[in-house]
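Quick illustration for those who missed Monday's session on complexes.
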Amino acid sequence: MRQAMNFSLDDTQTMLADSIEKFIENDYDFESRQKYSGSDTGFSIDVWKMFAELGWTAVPFSEDDGGFGGSPIDVMIMMQRFGRALIVEPYLANIILSGGILRRAANAEQRERWLHPIIAGDLHASLAFVEPQGRYDLANIATTASAEGDGWILDGRKGYVLNGRNAELLLVPARTSGAQSDADGITLFAIDASTDGVSIDDYPTVDGHQAAEIVLDDVRVDSEAVIGNVDAGFAALDATIDDATLAVCAEAVGIMQVLKDKTVEYAKNRIQFGVPIGSFQALQHRMVDMLTDCEQSQSLLMWATMVNAAGQSDAKRAISAIKYKIGTTGRKVGEEAVQIHGGMGVSWELDIAHYFKRLVTIGQIFGNADWHLDKLAA
Amino acid sequence: MDVTFSKDEIAFRDEVRDFFQTEYPADLLDKQNRGISLSKDDYVRSMKALHKRGWAGVNWPVEYGGTGWSPVQKYLFAIEMAEANALDIIAFGLNMVGPVIYTFGTEEQKQRFLPDILASNVWWCQGYSEPGSGSDLASLKMRADRAGDHYIVNGTKTWTTLGQFADWIFLLARTTTDVARRQEGISFLLVDMSTPGVSVKPIITIEGDHEVNEIHFEDVKVPVENLVGEEGKGWTYGKVLLQHERTNIAGVARSKVRLNRLYEQTKNSIRGAAPLSDDRNFMRRLAAVEVELKALEYTELRTLAAVASGTAPGPESSILKIKGTELQQAIDTLYVDAAGYYSLPFVPEQYGPDFAGERLGDGAETKTLLKYFNYRKASIYGGSNEIQKNIISKHVLGL
Ligand SMILES: Cc1cc2nc3c(=O)[nH]c(=O)nc-3n(C[C@H](O)[C@H](O)[C@H](O)COP(=O)(O)OP(=O)(O)OC[C@H]3O[C@@H](n4cnc5c(N)ncnc54)[C@H](O)[C@@H]3O)c2cc1C
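Prediction with flavin-adenine dinucleotide bound:
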């Protein structure tokens, strides 16, 4: 008989988890991560190719698209482990965000042209979901697309376009009708990054990743650039950002667990006043709180992922719950890890600082704690 | 009890305000207001401007060239300085080693060192912490062995803030190992950084800056006349200094000004459909910080008043340190949250003096997230906040 409650991984999930863990252990230590992060691309092309060869880039896509037919649970398994290794390869930009839009809204020809090379690891794409004035409101889109002849002209500005340095394809939500923060009237466009009028100003971000500000000035595209229906792009955008939010929460939980483990380890070994600092109750209780927050976050993450996988009606609420948790106690776990490491916690050389920076960054994207608490209280 | 200022005090405040508007280097205020990274020379010029006006030794007694100000005057000065957005005073000379020298030094040391400290002719750094001795400072291993009219200093100091700029360092080093208590046998030494055997190695911190250093001492010869006070009694002097450091770290005036600026920013930053000031969650958190800060402002005034009536800052200074740094960090967090996605770019070069392009992510402050990361140090240094709580529980509560 199938049991009602089951928190364990099935065989395929276990295999996926094992293969990622093995890869991290053998090929992705902190020094490699720092090297990839500091390279010209901002990640390792070879590692990315390997992700594709191992089928990890195919996980969330249907078998028709050449995918693995995986569920949000598979994505959670992967992202949590990516978090543990602080992976800088563009899984979020290419697979979750761009892939999420294309698999939901693109037609067969567009999938063939863009989605398949993304899955194969040959094309870098990014979703421009942030506008400078929009804060966390996805529907607040001031970038315009006006019809001209058979095509469209786009004007506007996008911020924090992930992997903007390497993106060859930009997925751009633009306003084709309605007021600036209406959900209706948003259309999704696929734009070649080399199109005239597209300027990309990329920059490193504090977490060792990279992003870009993008200005669209009189950018002309033909009608095949439209993904899905005109004025009806919001649903795919919103659902994709929900996926992405869950994905980074899984990453964050992985990071929190590492920070907790490393802090406990450090406290056992750092001697002050002739004893390990871990023997001070003032610190012991705080590490217990870190553990509790890790467990509570893991629970919310699994709940949110499972209700999403099951398509239940409280899925959105669950996503806001875990994102709020990461934005509050997640940040707290990071701060405590740094504090308990003393000066070592703020030194660039140690990995702690970098886990902390990624964790704080995750709290800042796709809606911070205040934003999601508002949704929960609405 | 009276919270109103006297006519004289108001006149004093106006005088200070006028100084920052007319005499203090305007280019430095401009740099500050535009969030441009500051150089050593900027700090020196700032402190020299204060010195020229006779205001460098805010806490110093008049006989050594200090202001001799009352607590209220010091408070007003700090507020005006923060309002003007003037550069922070670098504490190592003026607020740390200076007071130790005028309290415990010989007449000769006073004449030799104090004028240059007051005039910011010499940059000092603080050599207390060692790789194995942070919170447990009394376990420090640096040796200063007497050899005729010199000490020979060997060992490593770490986390030395702005040691790369320093001309001199004040050290705690062990002159005797044969002692009953570890706190004994430690001496307070002044060392010229250009002495052979001193080498400075940078440590890069979380936000990517070079602010701290590891400093190695290999057979460094230090003349005996650079010992402050009695040999082996350095721990006592070092502790007095730490208590001064703790009151200075609180930074209440700066926090007040930063919070006010953030209030203004929330009204003016259009985020989506409404200004940030419409975000009730955010504004409630801001208001809660404001309440604590107001309380701390008065706690600080009460401490200053006690100091004025003759006592050196006692264990109560630990309260200021804990709360002051917690509030600085809370304000950093609010700025980060206000900036949203625009806290994330890591582009230090855009804050360079010669950067001409359009900067990313400016609000009422720049570098919000970098500042947040950098200021995690505030609850770690100057005696970590945990150590402050230990001090309070032992010396105030008697536990
Ligand atoms: C940016 C920065 C600048 C600095 N500048 C200077 C400087 O200019 N000069 C200088 O001399 N030093 C400086 N310091 C060093 C600073 O004073 C030490 O970092 C601090 O004393 C803590 O020591 P530690 O880093 O070795 O941490 P540890 O002492 O190893 O402490 C690790 C953790 O254990 C906790 N802990 C330790 N003992 C206890 C206890 N008994 N009970 C409860 N908790 C405890 C601490 O609070 C901390 O959270 C600086 C540090 C930083 C980070």
